[in-house]
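FAQ
Q: What does a multi-component entry look like?
A: The components come first, one per line:
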Amino acid sequence: MVDFPIQDILRHLLLAARWTIVLSLIAFAGGGLVGLALLVARIARPRLGGWLVGGYVQLFQGTPLLMQLFLAYFGLGLFGIKVSAWVAAGLALTLYSSAFLTEIWRGCINAVPRGQWEASASLALSLPEQLRWVIGPQALRIAVPPTAGFMVQLIKGTALASVIGFVELTRTGSMIANATFRPFLVYSLVALMYFALCWPLSAWSRRLERNLNVAR
Amino acid sequence: MSHADPSAAPVVRITGLRKRFGENEVLKGIDLQVAPGEVIAIIGRSGSGKSTLLRCINGLETFDSGSLAVGGQPLAHGDAKAMRALRQQVGMVFQSFNLFPHLSAGRNVMLAPTLVKKLPHDAAQALAQELLVRVGLGEKFDAMPDQLSGGQQQRVAIARALAMAPAVLLCDEITSALDPELVGEVLRVVESLAAQGMTMMMVTHEMAFARKVSHRIVFMHAGRIHEIGPAQSLFDNPSTPELKQFLSAIDR
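Then the predicted structure of the entire assembly, as tokens:
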């Protein structure tokens, strides 16, 4: 057994937490952008867009993220496309989160009363203007809690990327636990670090929600 | 009551308008022309098609056959540019106000002129202030909708519709959601607009008011214009049993 002082354990876990953060940010940004594009496609072309995006959402919501990660990593390899764990994890998490976010946001848009669409339409606003100035700001306020809730899920979901060899917080934790034979200590520290990432997000979301309510 | 000029080209021209929701035909061939400066009150039982007719005029509802033109401009569904041009000619005030809750009263009024007419910020602000004064809310520019009473919200909604300088103003039961003591302030604004020569079509249950400000009354029944004519003759000498029945039912 290697002698591993707790400072070293902490240092390694903190360094690994960087990659959890980076992967989460990629998934937020990628998923947010793709999700927004899907949302617009759905609103602009309710029939065709709604059908296609609906299928996409069902596909990614109805299969485990773990399978999506495997398929992105090994599946692309079968087609001769060599992907790193980074690309596979980033891609799978982006697709996964875009499906959830577009569905969450569609619900928020639908929660804006129909009268708001009618009033803005009868003022001759175009669809983009309606979305940008009337519907969007109201949907945004509704969207904060569920979006933040999903982001918290997503941060924890990045742990699954460890199965395709992506060395983030969870993977580093299990490697250190194996080397030190102190799994309880190590996994407790890992859990604390996830908490330290997720809790500020929830707190920030609560504050944002309050501020948006005041600014209404 | 201001003078309407029936010889001038009509502001709204509706010809053979038909509309069905599935099996149910709600408009069975409507013909109606509205002269500049004319005030038309549309009355009738619920389900008679009066709100649907109004909502067809600015394209909130599509119709199946017939034609509809505002200011000589035909309504063409699916043509976004034509719809945008037409809707600038048609203002609408709703039963449930539908103010934008995230914008102040003034911003509600400024939004469409800024976006659609590309009015500079200062000019739009001055216009909004002027219109709020006109509906008796000059002090409320910065008030948020939820800080206003129902009557005040509806008056902001009227100012918002007027900001686009529409050729015709559609009012869809605009006092039906108000507490009784707030109805008067909204009707006074509508009355002053009528006196200033605004062309208006209003669906209303306020019969006394309809009689006072309207040039013509349209009585709708079962998807058709059942009776049409000046307020006096329609209310005092209804010629169909349906209108007689309707008037006696609401008189009680």
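Q: Is there any commentary attached?
A: Sometimes. For this entry: Chain B touches chain A through 29 residues (CB under 8 Å).
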